[in-house]
Write a structure and sequence with these properties.
Helix 1 runs antiparallel to helix 2 and helix 6 (about 95-105) packs across helix 7. This protein has two domains: about 5-65, Arc Repressor Mutant, subunit A (Orthogonal Bundle), CATH 1.10.10; about 80-160, Glutaredoxin. It is elongated and about 55 Å long. It has helices at about 10-20, 25-40, 45-55, 55-65, 85-90, 95-105, 145-155; strands at about 80-85, 115-120, 135, 140. The protein has about 160 residues and is α+β, with helices and mostly antiparallel strands. The structure holds FE2/S2 (inorganic) cluster (FES). FE2/S2 (inorganic) cluster (FES) binds near residues 124, 127 and 128.
Length: about 160
C-alpha cells in the first residue's frame, strides 16, 4: 500500500481495477466507479490507479476535468443549489447565499468544514415563478427567505446539529 493512501479504504479501488484495469479505454468507467465509491476522485486514489494501470495521472485528471459529472474535491453530504438567475437574483438570492455561507461557515470551495453541506450557485432552474429558489438535494424550495432556508437546511441534517 502506498503511504499516501493509508486514509482510504482501498477495497473499492481493487474491485474497480479487477473489473476494468486490463481494458483499454476504460478510463471513464474507472473514474465513475471510483467516484461512486469515494464520493469524489481523491488525488491519492488517482495516483494509485495510475500506479496499478500505467495510465498517467495527467490523463486521469484531464478526463475528470473535461466531464462535468466528475468531482476532484470532496463535497458535503447535502448539496444546496441556490439559483442566482435574473428572477431569483432580483428577488433576493444573494441574501440567501450570504446567509447559508455564514450559517455553515462555507469555505471557498462552497463546502462546510464538517462536510455536511456544499453550496453551488446555479443560473435558472426553470422555476422563475417561485423565485428565489433553492434546491436542497432533490427538494425545491420556492420563495425562500434567508432564515427559512437556513432552518430548512438544519432540518435536512437534524442529527448533525
Ligand atoms: S431565475 Fe431562478 S428559477 Fe429561473
Amino acid at each position: 500500500m502506498a503511504e499516501n493512501t493509508t486514509t482510504f479504504d482501498l477495497a473499492p479501488l481493487r474491485q474497480v481495477l479487477d473489473q476494468y484495469g486490463g481494458q483499454k479505454g476504460a478510463v471513464i468507467p474507472i473514474l465513475q466507479h471510483i467516484q461512486d465509491a469515494y464520493g469524489y476522485l481523491p488525488k491519492e486514489i488517482l495516483t494509485e490507479v495510475s500506479r496499478r494501470t500505467g495510465i498517467p495521472v495527467t490523463r486521469l485528471i484531464g478526463v475528470a476535468t473535461f466531464y462535468a459529472q466528475f468531482r476532484l474535491s470532496r463535497r458535503g453530504k447535502h448539496l444546496i443549489r441556490i439559483c442566482d438567475g435574473t428572477a431569483c437574483h432580483v428577488r433576493g438570492a444573494p441574501k440567501n447565499v450570504a446567509a447559508v455561507e455564514k450559517a455553515f461557515e462555507l469555505g471557498d470551495d462552497g463546502t462546510s468544514p464538517d462536510y455536511k453541506y456544499t453550496l453551488e450557485i446555479v443560473y435558472c432552474v426553470g422555476s422563475c415563478g417561485l423565485a428565489p429558489v433553492a434546491v436542497v438535494d432533490d427538494r425545491v424550495y420556492g420563495r425562500v427567505e434567508p432564515e427559512d432556508l437556513v432552518e430548512r437546511l438544519r432540518e435536512v441534517a437534524p442529527e448533525e446539529h
